[in-house]
Amino acid sequence: MHRMTLVRRGCLSSASRMTLRSLSLTGTGTGTGVAAPSVFTPTARTLVAAASTATPTTASSDQSTASTETARKKRVLSGVQPTGTVHLGNYLGAIRNWVNLQDTYDTYFMVVDLHAITVQPHNPKELLEATRNGAALYIACGIDPTKAKVFVQSHVTAHAEMAWLLSCVTPVGWLKKMIQFKEKSRKNNEEVGTGLLTYPVLMAADILLYQSDLVPVGEDQKQHLELARDLAERTNYLFGGKKAKKMGCQYTRLFKVPDPFIPPAGARVMSLQDGTSKMSKSAESDLSRINLLDSPELIESKIKKAKTDTFDGLADGFENPDRPDAKNLLTIYQCVTGKTQDEVIADVGRLRWGEFKPVLTEAVVEHLRPIQGRYADVMQDQAYLDRVLMDGREAAEEEAMKTLMNVKKAMGFYTL
Ligand code: AMP
Ligand code: TRP
């Protein structure tokens, strides 16, 4: 199916229903909090709501960067790993919010395949399939390739190269403090690959290569974002400014320091089987998550089996700390219906679990139905998908190379 057909069917445009108002910046950056090396103390600034609602342009700063000579649209970049299937957590925490940003911002969305091989051994056939499916799902969820750059991370080799440069600037203590690394290495009896440790450096490279202003992610990525900010400041301090000028660099501020962009609802969707742990691709039981491509029957059965509690009604479900499962299912309902918490409680607060579950099932199924339809359409036209990814690669590469060449020059590499 052709893009034009998708547009005619109202597929691509219908996805931008949510407004920017529903997003906000949350959290305060505390930095990685590690003992600073003597050359530099990384103190991440407080994460301010820079331009979440105001004009999305960045005025050129006194220190020029590789993508800001004059005022430009603020840039947004994000990605999801092609591992397993994309679930409701990925969608509500990240992808859905990307759709709202593409009209206003200069957006880059990639399938982060290099990040998908950190847990070894990975299955090459599955990686290949999940990468293609992931890109198709972005479009199915409403990313419009005529507005956003959609690409595959490994297609732009500057990511791997920048990750090496940055890894040499990263104290290993910063990486060992990362919660995800600690959790995963504990789970695997410390028998983990080096890639799992250096994973956040590659993520920082992804972000910093594009001089990104905002990075829309779920709550679990906040610490990785703080590391990216610290690395930007550290590299700017070590090699930027006057030092870069002396090296003949065109842009003296090497990296823009990015801000996270975390949605107020849906930033942490929890497991259907345990409202205290995150919905994740790696959880053993598929009953714990709703995948975007699950059939209505499967969604119904997963919600039927979802953990509940013994309280009466759902009226205090959002605020009662003893009701994590109620909060999670109500939040999912809130996100897929686009209602406020008050509207949700007015709507379903009186219901008992047995009455609420079918209502929730219908809301989820109806929300996912058009996404699944568009996904099937896109997957039928491989040539269209490849064209989108080639265009995305070209546009992304151009931006990434500007930053990479400038940073290499600042670091003293012999550039021709
Ligand atoms: P990953 O699957 O780890 O590549 O995650 C892709 C994106 O989905 C990231 O922005 C995550 O923060 C977000 N994400 C993953 N799991 C959840 C969850 N359970 N709730 C909300 N966001 C999530
Ligand atoms: N690490 C992120 C995750 O697991 C995925 C990711 C890789 C990413 N590079 C990124 C997200 C750059 C935002 C920006 O979810």
Account of the 3D structure:
- There is one protein chain.
- It is built from 14 helices and 7 strands.
- Helices cover 45% and strands 6% of the residues.
- The longest helix is centred in the last third of the chain and has 30 residues, at 382-411.
- Mean pLDDT is 86; it is low at 1-55 and 58-62.
- A 3-stranded parallel β-sheet has the order 3-4-5.
- The termini are far apart.
- The chain is mostly helical and 416 residues long.
- Helix 7 crosses helix 8 (222-239).
- Helix 3 (124-140) links the parallel strand 4 (106-111) and strand 5.
- The site of adenosine monophosphate has 18 residues, from helix 2.
How is the topology of this model organized?
Elements: H1 3-8, E1 57-58, E2 72-73, E3 75-80, H2 88-101, E4 106-111, H3 124-140, E5 149-152, H4 158-167, H5 172-176, H6 179-187, H7 194-209, E6 214-216, H8 222-239, H9 242-246, E7 259-261, H10 296-305, H11 324-337, H12 341-348, H13 353-379, H14 382-411
Parallel strand pairs: 3-4, 4-5, 6-7
Antiparallel strand pairs: 1-2
Helix pairs in contact: 3-13, 4-7, 4-14, 7-8, 10-13, 11-13
Tryptophan binds next to strand 3 and helix 7.
